[in-house]
């Protein structure tokens, strides 16, 4: 009888222990992504005034879209020092403490202005980039050629996949005459290994929204700066691949331009419009550049400090709100699409 009395005495404690064990399990349930923020062109020696607005939005994910520092050097000590300046920035430290950090690079953090596969320090620079992003030392990505990666967030049925391309490591040469970039009609941007990887990521994606990010603009054709349109064969191959794989909810992200804009096109064989959000100018913009042709642009061209944001409303279908915000968290651009 005494044994049963002791057992009843400990029942409340056993209940508390069982409850305590259950709570962490419940807390680890995967939640749908609410907000993804992104940006580019972050010069480490200029005032870092955009971070409070970014943090105010509490993004689940932050995506670097290139020129994350202005390294422009073959000296890896110089690049590391500049990366460290960003890592020590209090606003970025706050973001790292609460958001998943992913990204890719463009030319200035790659190490060579307007550079492609001719950059002789690309292997060493790649390791510094992975250090900055926080890629584990034993990650297979550290052994690949290029900083492309994919990341899936959210539970089944409410997933977002972020596919980040490297448009520098394998890119063919691009000539400049009188400061004007020439067209490399047969040139490649990604390299065959990365093309195969991208096709696999799109064909096998189970996500409801598939985001493809890289450093330079994909849709705009008329601007005279670096863009996928300088490599028309590669640009068409990318657009054809998006259509052929039938991946749902593809949205393009890009940086580089020191402006922000949203572009939109309709591709034959695609059941929804293809949007591209360019967000560029976290620390500096081209203030005089407010009238540039872009037949795909919807809304205005923004030449103020900015970052981008995607907000997701999950119901039977997913509504994605695309925004460009300023340093005071004001909204410059807003578009919405349902998939």
From TrEMBL:
All copies of domain PhoD-like phosphatase metallophosphatase, residue ranges: 50-265
GO terms for MF: alkaline phosphatase activity
Keyword Signal applies: yes
Signal peptide positions on this chain: 1-20
Native organism: Pontibacter populi
E.C. numbers: 3.1.3.1
Keywords, comma-separated and alphabetical: Hydrolase, Signal
Keyword Hydrolase: yes
InterPro entries in alphabetical order: Metallo-depent_PP-like (IPR029052), PhoD-like_MPP (IPR018946), PhoD-like_sf (IPR038607)
Pfam families per record: PhoD
Lineage: Bacteria, Pseudomonadati, Bacteroidota, Cytophagia, Cytophagales
Entry protein name: Alkaline phosphatase D family protein
